Automatic annotation (TrEMBL):
One of its GO terms (molecular function) is acyltransferase activity, transferring groups other than amino-acyl groups. Residues 22-178 form the N-acetyltransferase domain. This is GNAT family N-acetyltransferase. The keyword Iron-sulfur does not apply. It comes from the Bacteria. Keywords: Transferase. InterPro entries: Acyl_CoA_acyltransferase, GNAT_dom.
């Protein structure tokens, strides 16, 4: 019985402070249409903070790109209504992509003002960090507007440090992850615990 009720990997239901339940899960191709529909509900400042420039709509190609992450180097989560993908309104998107060097990964998070200020951004960021650790990433970074103080504060509260960015008006938030511990070789045959 318990096995039947178990959630798939990276799926979890969260009760927000306003009493609304959302499902945090990996992004799906079916989310492209709801993402485009929800985009027009965003405030201009929300769009600018995430995409770093004004946009009136999320294009079809952009939505397709967002909803088809490369599983070898990208991971994206959504916080959506607990409905089937394609029907659920998406309130937040979090994404991380590993750089070509295999050691660094860039994050981006967008939380709609409808569910902002309820701890969802922190929850999503922790999930991105967990995924990156599992992929043996050593450094996570994100380009954040200088004016985006909430994102800077959120990242700093999770251990991210501020670095100067090459772009004016931008701050780079960086989290160094501990290197993975080397695996110990298996004990030699015939050696007991006392001998080790």
């Amino acid at each position: 019985m318990a096995a039947r009720n178990r959630m798939p990997p990276w799926h979890e239901k969260i009760l927000l402070a306003n009493g609304r339940e959302v499902l945090v899960r990996p992004i799906r191709p079916e989310d492209a249409v709801p993402l485009r529909a929800a985009f027009v509900l965003l405030e201009p400042d929300e769009v600018r903070q995430r995409f770093l420039h004004p946009m009136k709509e999320l294009g079809v190609e952009q939505a397709e790109r967002l909803t088809h992450p490369d599983p070898r180097r990208e991971f994206a989560l959504v916080a959506a209504e607990p409905l089937p993908p394609g029907e659920a309104l998406v309130g937040a998107v979090a994404r991380i992509a590993i750089d070509d060097n295999g050691r660094d990964a860039e994050f981006a998070i967008l939380v709609s003002h409808y569910v902002n200020g309820m701890g969802l951004g922190r929850h999503l960021m922790r999930r991105l960090v967990r995924w990156a650790k599992g992929r043996k990433v050593l450094r996570i970074y994100g380009e954040v507007l200088e004016s985006n103080l909430p994102m800077q504060a959120l990242a700093a509260s999770l251990g991210f440090q501020r670095e100067s960015s090459g772009d004016p008006g931008m701050i780079r938030m960086v989290l160094d992850l501990p290197p993975p511990k080397p695996k110990l070789p298996p004990p030699l045959p015939g050696m007991g615990a006392a001998a080790r």
